[in-house]
Write a structure and sequence with these properties.
Blueprint: E1 15-16, E2 26-34, H1 36-48, H2 52-59, H3 61-68, E3 69-71, E4 79-84, E5 89-93, E6 95-97, E7 100-105, E8 108-113, E9 118-121, H4 129-132, H5 141-148, H6 160-168, H7 171-185, H8 189-221, E10 226-230, E11 244-247, E12 256-259, E13 268-273, E14 275-279, H9 281-284, E15 289-292, E16 311-312, E17 317-322, E18 328-334, H10 340-349, H11 357-387, H12 391-405, H13 410-427, E19 430-432, H14 437-440, E20 446-449, H15 451-455, E21 461-469, E22 472-473, E23 477-478, H16 488-495, E24 500-502, E25 505-507, H17 510-519, E26 522-523, E27 533-536, E28 543-553, E29 558-565, E30 568-575, H18 577-583, H19 593-601, E31 605-615, H20 617-623, H21 628-631, E32 636-644, H22 651-660, E33 664-668, H23 673-683, E34 692-698, E35 703-709, H24 714-719, E36 725-726, H25 744-757, E37 761-763, E38 777-781, H26 782-790, H27 794-801, H28 825-839, E39 842-844, H29 848-860, E40 865-868, H30 875-880, E41 883-887, E42 898-900, H31 906-944, H32 952-961, H33 964-971, H34 991-1016, H35 1036-1056, H36 1070-1088, H37 1092-1098, H38 1104-1107, ...
Parallel strand pairs: 1-9, 20-33, 20-40, 33-39, 34-38, 35-37, 38-39, 40-41, 41-42
Antiparallel strand pairs: 2-3, 2-4, 4-5, 6-7, 7-8, 8-9, 10-11, 10-12, 12-18, 13-16, 13-18, 14-15, 14-17, 19-42, 21-22, 21-23, 21-32, 24-25, 26-27, 27-28, 28-29, 29-30, 30-31, 31-32, 34-35, 36-37
Amino acid sequence: MDPNSLLPKEANIEVIDSEIEGTTKITNIEPIRLQKRRIVLGVLLSVITSFLFTLACSWSKKLVRKFFFKESQLDRATHMWITNNDNSNNIAKLIQQQSQVYFINRKLKYIYDSAMNKFKALEYDLRTKRELLQANGVQNPRQQQEKFGKCLIDIPKPNLFVYLVKELTAPFYILQYLSCFLWVLEDLAILSIIMISVSLIFTTINFLLLQNSAQKLRDMAKSLAQVQVYRGDQPFYKQGIQFKKMDSQDLVPGDVIAIENKMTLPCDCVLISGDLLMNEASLTGESIPIPKIPIENLDQPVSFMVDKRHCLYEGTKVLLARPTYQYVIAIVGRTGFSSFKGQIFRSVLYPKVQPFPFYSQGIKYLICLAICVLIVYFALLPRIISVGFSFMIIFLRFWDALTWIVPPALPIFVSMCQTYSLIRLRQKGVFGIDPSKSLVAGKINTVCFDKTGTLTTIGIDMYGYQMRKKNKFEKFINKNQVNYKNNFEFKLFATCHGTYEIDGDLMGDSLDVELFKFTDFTIDKNPPPNVKSRVINKNKDIVLDVLKLYEFESALQRMSVIVKEKDNYFVFVKGSPEKMAELSNQNTIPIDFKKNLNLLTMKGLRILGFGFRQITEEECERLMNASRQECETDIQFLGLLAMENKLKHDTPQVIDLLNKANVDLKVISGDNPLTTVQCARECGIIPNIKPVLLLDYNEKEQQLTLDEISVFEDSQNLNQTKQDIEIEVLVDEVEDLSEEILDHQKVMQKLVQHLLTAQNIKRSLISDNDNLSSQHCFAMSGKAFDYFWSQLPNEEIRKMNKQSFAGFEQPINNVEQIKIGGLNDQELHIKLFASICLNARVFARMRPEQKSMVIEKLQELKKMVLMIGDGANDCAAIKQANVGVSFAQSDAAYSAPYSSADDSIDCVRQVLLDGRCALQNALEVFQYYVGASVIKYTAAMITMAFGQNFGDLQYIVINYVGSLPYLKSISLSKPSITLTKELPNESMMALSNVAVLSFQIIVASLGLVINFLYWNSLDWENEPGVVDGKFSKEGTIQTTQFKSMQIYFIMAVFAIYTSRPFKQKILTHKIMLVFICISLIFTLWIFFTYQEWQFKVLKLYDTNIQHGRSYNFIQFILTIIVGLVMLLGDEYVIRRVFPNNKKQIKKTKTRPSISSYNS
């Protein structure tokens, strides 16, 4: 059978978006066909070019695609050209197996669906819920395993040989091999051997670090266990069926498995029989019991995203199993990389590469420098020819010039800076797994914090509650003021929660646990079989049975229970205040509801509303089988419950240090906006004196609202009258703006004024003077974010669906852009959205995907973002950020390049400090290595002009004694202890960096010329020169240049090393001082003394013989003078004339008021 007969004759084909892809998706595929003739041609080209063509193909997949493949119709295709959502490309083989056509990309198999004429990620068809309830065992497990693979997240183990081949064939290494080849032809074989050996050693060290990181991932991914499996042909509920114990890696989708206590799930499953309590810390970051119930008997498909209360996820742990039959039964749904845990690991294995300009800018500078050096080469070419060199030496010197200017070992020393940064952080309890992030951390100017578990502690304390009396609230009751705990509200507190007692310990959401402890009730360990749980008060005169429980769902923002007390039946509901106000009878909502809610939330308390509904026994029987919505209607609002989530002990101090460094700080949380704002205020992200403008969206009225959250003062808020005013102003008033160019903050004020005056905008809380003074900060809710996003042009929404934000415009920087003539409503909307994202300090009620979207938007606004969080709901944002930080014990550590051993956010400061130090170290390594190379080239060209060159051992001393210790010392430099406002300027094309390096090169080169001129002013007898067309490796000119270079190297280190404000002072850098002292002693020794070994080993001439000691003394004085010019000129001239202008941008302190705009 022709395998291509299964495919249509089409060139355009699509991939169906699937939830099992997670965040690592395919955006486009193209069928291509391998051309066999091109393979033969490719082999010939590789042989002819000495395998350079093979190397080029290994560097560029697009070259492989264009040379070896051609576009094809699907029925004739052999491969697929894949574009992923991070814009990377893969070539995947199109495989025909039995009746399946598929390809594999990034650990997932994509099969062709002939009915839809599209490819889709392979996923087991769970059928309908009713069919699953009649499931029997898998009859053909081997066939299923061939189709779906093993139930195992197999993280590839790095192979040393493969890694070395890949790394040592990178472009810079090829340049290194070319250099070594040229040096061998120039009789410098020992230097070449040492260069290759050093590269191999450092590459092996990097491999060991990579292997260590990969092993940690493998340990995290490992979930092997023994599982009870039924593979018979009878339905699972039949009596007498036999389960067989087997390795979890042999499970296949469709298997019927038994769930046991304390078991860690090895795959994603659907619960079909029995009840479970699960610890889903690997998903949520919070170790709380989550109840799981069997699927209903309905003709509906099962979704792992929608039916979470029926689904079990890999890596989660069973706390308590309550079987209906012999075991708690589940059906295996997803295994390996298709599971939710597998999706997380796929995102870690294939992270989105964030562009970083350090390398590209460095290459640009090297190209410019190479042009200058080649000009010098051709200027000296007539002199070199006249000396008598052979054509081969002249030819080799031309290519040798390029290898001098582009130091082949540069990537090795830059990677040393990254590696040492990870080692320093590890000593401080911060573990890094991605060395490349060390440099990126040095450019971070924006830090985004999750709230709960990051800024605050995970635990929560009871604060008090406030009851309704008629149409108003009673006085707030602090927890210490409660004496009698048998009131009606305590019956609700004791039952409407998700707390369970397991092995004598209360487990659940910390809020529910603290609430239950507050009631002094206890949980009956042996409740009747027809109730979910039973609680009894201290005096044992109140017994409450929970008949049915609807667990808390974040989408619904509430939980509810049906409770029986003797002959009385109740529905108790607890949830967010806003949702409770929406569910409850409006005549039971206190008239001072909003005022009291604001008062409590502005104290930083976590607020819940609660209510009840009394029902009859008949209603109870009906509601037991009714929908949740029917159960949660006609609720009588009772009051508000306040819980206190305290800041971590050092959060305010760390935030203060980050504020002093002008780092832009933001909170991105799923919590209540007012609570999040108050948390941001308490820790210092929002100054205490500043009110906040909260941008929200009212779904009922379909309007944006702009609410002013004033600074909390009880007397002020109790007396403040709040008003809702609709402001409508014509848009053409925007035309009255001044022609002057304003800074971004002032432009933001213009945009906010437009927001306040647009027809569909409602400002519900307005200050007395009706203006936006400098006192205001901004906050944005998830609903408002969704509103702005939904209003974007269609093409922007399509880009969002492909996980891309490309196409957003930059914020307005020029007032003329706001004019109606130059900016339409759609463009203004996009720019307004961008400006609000840039200026908001708080993003609240944000879903996990929204957190990631906010960060991506900030990145488009040229922000370098660090995200720190602790839960799995932060993983997407951490992965999206330029640098992600988490805590080692949290599940977000899966996706974080950095994880802290403790739960303090001081790890952020440590990462920023060391990142800036590492980036400055890398910059100085670049400057010193390139500068030293040019100095060496200048000296070599001067000696070449007189038929001489340095010998093998001289080059070794120059490279590995004169340069390597300094490069190593620079990379070992420790960070400063103070985080400052300045940022390293990583761009080598920046004027400040160009000036520093160019000044060192020019002055040192002029110094070598001065040394040469003094040498040339004297008469030298029997001076070696060209012999048989080759240079001599000894002589007085090369001896003079060799000695002088040692001084210039030392002075260059002092000049280039920048301690303030990123690194330790050079005088405290003990390793650097030791190397400088050793080098200085060696230099003085060879300058002023002479022994025979100097000639035998280093081929240094005794210049004192012909001109006495005065020659060396004068040369030394000239060299010191030039060295001082290098040092002092850099410090007092260059760095002051060309300062590093990379600083954090301070926020504007003054803002014009709205009233001034309107006037």
